[in-house]
Amino acid sequence: MKKYSSILLILIICALNTQDSEAQFRFSNLFGGKDKPRKNRLFEPNSTVSLGVGTSSYYGDISPYNRFLQSTVNGMRWNVNFNFTRQFSPTFALRFGLTYARISGDDNYLEGVKGYEGNFIRNLHFRNDIKELSIVGQYDLVRTSRSYLRRANIIPYIFGGVAVFAHDPMAKPDASLYGNDWVRLQPLNTEGQGLPGYANNPYSLISVSFPLGVGVKYKLNKHWDLGVEMSYRYTLTDYLDDVSGNFADPADLAAQSPLAASMGNRSLEQIAARSGNDRTQGVINYLTDIGIYSASAPINPFSLTAIPGFSDKADLRGNPKYNDAYMLTTVKLIYHIPNKIKCPVTR
Asked: How far apart are alpha carbons 160 and 54 in whole angstroms?
């Protein structure tokens, strides 16, 4: 009995001593599997935060899509953003973003542009501050092996996702009547939204957009990158600019307030409220083309009660076929948050 007890004790001691050498054994080995780690198992997920600034451009009823370059430059404004990104694999990351952007547009940029005479006569403008929360998936076109510390010096990427944003279009009224302060447009029901006899309800100041973009990151040092990206956002609203459907009856707007009537139809304002430019010659040129004004019998064009095509409920004020959009370009500083230091296991 003592003999067997001694042998058993020796076997237990040997088993304990060989535990480390057997640590690599896996259940799959019983079936002929090889103990090879998967590729992504070597990758260490990591996180980054970034702060960026850049430009913003709007496309819609006041800045036409089919004049993309001019619309991008005209009325260009600014954006600031903060992002938190979690890199889950060598190529895929999920990004959460907060963006504050201002967009704007003005019909007077189209003065003298052939085919857009009606836009100039309409004489609308706006600005809109957008507060956006987004979540996007990001795909790096260059893989990062194992750790962000081994990332490439230059990494181009693409991304797409969804965003929820709050907005509130505003415009300057006729300074001679209401001063120079910007006023909110949605409560004025400028196209009759929500008024008796009009189909549409007041538009929502909360909407959804779909960011889609490209970017590139440049490694500055082991923890910092410099990034540049461009993203286009198609929205589910046609009222970033407060323009979409038909003109409202001036009498209906006047019943709400004189300010509503003034902001709903601005075609007979002599001075452009945002820029301060005198519109007289441009309006005369348009009235001459449609046969209302004659140089042989000049009149004050702003003494008319209305300009044909810009006063009746059947007259289009905007184009409801296409929703509005905006584009952001951003330069950002990216910080890689160090992973937790893994202490060696004591045995």
From this structure: 19
CA dist 337 and 138 (Å) reads: 18
β-bridge pairing 46-59 and 77-87: antiparallel
Side-chain-facing half-sphere of 238: CA atoms under 13 Å? 15
Residue 204 makes CB contacts below 8 A (sequence gap 6+) with 237
Identify the helix (H) or strand (E) that includes residue 289: helix 280-289
**How far, CA to CA in Å, does 279 sit from each of 46, 109, 269?**
57, 12, 8
C-alpha–C-alpha distance, residues 134 and 96, integer Å: 6
Terminal C-alpha separation, the chain: 34
- The dihedral of CA 25, 30, 33, 39: what is its sign? negative
Question: What pLDDT sits at residue 15?
Answer: 40
Query: Other CB atoms closer than 10 Å to residue 94's CB: what's the count?
Result: 15
pLDDT, one tens digit per residue, over 151-164 is: 999 999 999 999 99
Going from the C-alpha of 243 to that of each of 91, 154, 191, 299, 316, the distances in angstroms are 41, 42, 8, 30, 10
* Residues near 276 by beta carbon (within 8 Å), at least 6 away in sequence: none
Q: What is the pTM of this model?
A: 0.84
Residues pairing with 210 in the sheet: 234
**pLDDT tens digit sequence for 291-313:** 999 988 899 999 999 999 998 99
Cα separation, 207 vs 134, whole angstroms: 12
Q: State the average pLDDT for the chain.
A: 89
Q: Mean pLDDT throughout 28-54?
A: 69
- Provide the token pair at 268: 């007979």
Closest alpha carbon to 102 in 76, 74, 63: 76
Flag whether pLDDT at 244 surpasses 50: yes
Q: Is the Cβ–Cβ distance between 343 and 54 less than 8 Å?
A: no
Give the span between the Cα atoms of 305 and 165, in whole angstroms.
39
CA distance 192 to 247: 8
